[in-house]
Structure formats: C-alpha cells, structure tokens
C-alpha cells in the first residue's frame, strides 16, 4: 500500500483547524491548553508541516474535548 503522507498531513491539518475554530479557540489558547508556551506548534500542525505522533493527537483531542477520531475523520 502506497500512502500519500503529504495528503494525510493536509487532511489532518484541515480537521484540526476546523475543530479548533468550532470550539472558538485561538491557536495560542489551544497551545496553552496542551501545555505549550504558545500556539506556534499548533500553527505548524494546522499547516501540515509535521507528522504528529499518536500521543500528540490524543493530547490535542483531550484539550479540544473531542474524541480523537474527530481529528482523524478523513479518507486516505
């Protein structure tokens, strides 16, 4: 199976931004809820610049108060 990692990162990035905006959180606020100094890491993830470890996806879901599957709800 050949996975298009760049497409997966873009789809995840769209979901993350969408859920964050639905929750009316800024990138900075979400970053702080995740234990980061600010939202710079959130910004990078929302632009699809990095692969996220499963532990980071769980951390984001917890901070957003959603099930992790909401962030991973896309077709590959």
Automatic annotation (TrEMBL):
CDD domains linked to this entry: HTH_XRE
Domain HTH cro/C1-type intervals: 16-71
Gene Ontology terms for molecular function: DNA binding
Matches recorded under SMART domains: HTH_XRE
Top-level taxon of origin: Bacteria
Pfam families, per database record: HTH_3
Protein name listed in UniProt: Helix-turn-helix domain-containing protein
Organism (species): Mucilaginibacter gossypiicola
């Amino acid at each position: 199976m050949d996975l298009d990692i760049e497409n997966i990162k873009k789809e995840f990035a769209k979901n993350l931004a969408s859920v964050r905006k639905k929750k009316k959180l800024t990138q900075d606020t979400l970053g702080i809820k995740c234990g980061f100094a600010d939202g710079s890491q959130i910004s990078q993830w929302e632009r699809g610049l990095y692969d996220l470890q499963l532990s980071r996806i769980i951390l984001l879901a917890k901070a957003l108060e959603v099930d992790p599957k909401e962030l991973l709800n896309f077709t590959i």
